[in-house]
Design brief:
404 residues, alpha/beta, Cobalt-precorrin-4 Transmethylase, domain 1, Rossmann fold, 5-stranded mixed beta sheet, 16 strands, 41% helix
């Protein structure tokens, strides 16, 4: 097995300025933050959530990528899949010479073709157990940037499997993080998992816990999201909860409440401690971004909300869902989504589809909320705001004036 690095290469200082130049520098974002997260520009009043953009885990992941490039400029450097769910960041790494093994950026290189001199980065989401084993077998250098919050979830799932408890994971079974999480059960022969995406799917599980039902119908409903040889009558008798760390915390808490009540209804309150285990495994950064957006939405009358981040970013999508409960909300990947003062291209928070709307930016005074997912750098947020001002006809020269 090749070397494994989990703490970077110790050259953070050497890449700090490069990271700042590529991702963090934005005059407009800086000015809004230093002006109590508000800024009046022309007839627009901008209000920014107090926690937004890059979280610690994402910052660390991108930093390790830059450290790797700086220490090994002449090596072949690969990333298993998207390092984070932000197209600009992934495309920047390609521009700097990195290549991807899987996913939409795949370069076509197979794991079996990797050499001991090659370097492979494990993204913030982690990788499934089997994939990690294949990479270790190749003997190449591994730089593991798996987020600490994700590792905490893995520990819980591994514990469940070790003790013969089925891991019920609130998440999206197609998401890289959830795939890596459920793979932890494969470390134990008795390991079982079930992935529930939302409350409607949870109701299906609760109904089976309470009353039983047709096994094949249940398994057909959860195709691809249950472990091999899953038997709902047997495997839902003892369950432990976990979450994809970027899910909506309020939904996870409701799912926990529903499942617990179903277990009480089936087995009685006296049995619950033996049959039901729950931990809050929503990461603090995801929680902070949801909480501060909620605080902004409740304290300020907003005419619309802009949410900036990758369309495939789970935590960004949930921010858009929150915003849509209070005001028209537009989840855009970058400034290109703001086509004109009439037209905007965005991900609809309810359907998940990429759509185009017209008449989104009305005339007159507007109060606009701004936030961004945990994988969105400040410079992308800044470019969206600058585009907003441009199509509104507000000169960027206004930013040169002293902050109020």
């Amino acid at each position: 097995m090749g070397e494994l690095y989990r703490k970077g290469f110790g050259n953070k200082a050497a890449v700090r300025q490069k990271l700042a130049d590529d991702f963090h520098h934005s005059d407009v974002v800086r000015r809004i933050k230093t002006n109590d997260f508000r800024l009046e520009l022309g007839d627009l009043s901008l209000h920014m959530a107090r926690e937004m953009g890059f979280c610690y885990g994402v910052e660390r992941t991108v930093q390790y990528a830059y450290e790797t490039l700086q220490v090994h400029p002449d090596r072949h450097i690969y990333i298993t899949d998207e390092i984070i769910h932000n197209p600009q960041v992934n495309e920047k790494l390609i521009e700097l010479g990195m290549k991807f093994l899987y996913g939409r950026y795949s370069c076509g290189k197979k794991v079996e073709e990797l050499q001991p001199s090659d370097i492979v980065l494990i993204p913030a989401f982690g990788v499934p157990v089997a994939d990690m084993a294949k990479l270790k077998d190749r003997g190449c250098i591994l730089v593991d940037t798996t987020c600490g919050s994700v590792l905490t979830v893995w520990k819980n799932v591994e514990r469940y499997s070790r003790e013969g408890v089925t891991a019920v994971v609130h998440g999206k079974y197609t998401h890289e993080e959830t795939r890596a999480t459920i793979s932890q059960v494969t470390k134990y022969p008795q390991g079982k998992y079930l992935v529930v995406r939302d409350i409607p799917e949870t109701h299906v599980v609760c109904e089976y816990i309470r009353k039983g039902g047709d096994r094949e119908t249940f398994l057909a409903h959860f195709t691809n999201s249950v472990s091999k040889d899953f038997n709902p009558e047997r495997d839902l008798a003892r369950i432990g909860l976990a979450n994809q760390t970027t899910m909506m915390s309020s939904e996870s808490l409701e799912i926990q409440k529903l499942l617990r009540q179903a277990m009480v209804d089936r087995y009685g309150e006296a049995e619950i401690s033996k049959r039901f285990i729950a931990f809050d495994t929503i990461c603090s950064a995801t929680q902070d971004r949801q909480d501060t957006l909620n605080a902004l939405l409740r304290s300020t009358k907003l005419d619309l909300v802009l949410v900036v981040g990758g369309f495939n970013s789970s935590n960004t999508g949930h921010l858009a869902e929150l915003g849509s409960e209070y005001a028209p909300t537009y989840h855009v990947e970058n400034e290109q989504g703001l086509v004109s003062a009439d037209e905007i291209r965005y991900r609809d928070p309810k359907s998940g589809s990429i759509v185009t709307a017209h008449g989104w930016l009305s005339q007159g005074n507007l109060s606009i909320g701004v936030t961004a997912g945990a994988s969105t750098p400040d410079n992308i947020v800044g470019r969206v705001i600058e585009r907003l001002l441009e199509i509104r006809g507000i000169s960027l020269d206004a930013l040169a004036q002293p902050a109020a």
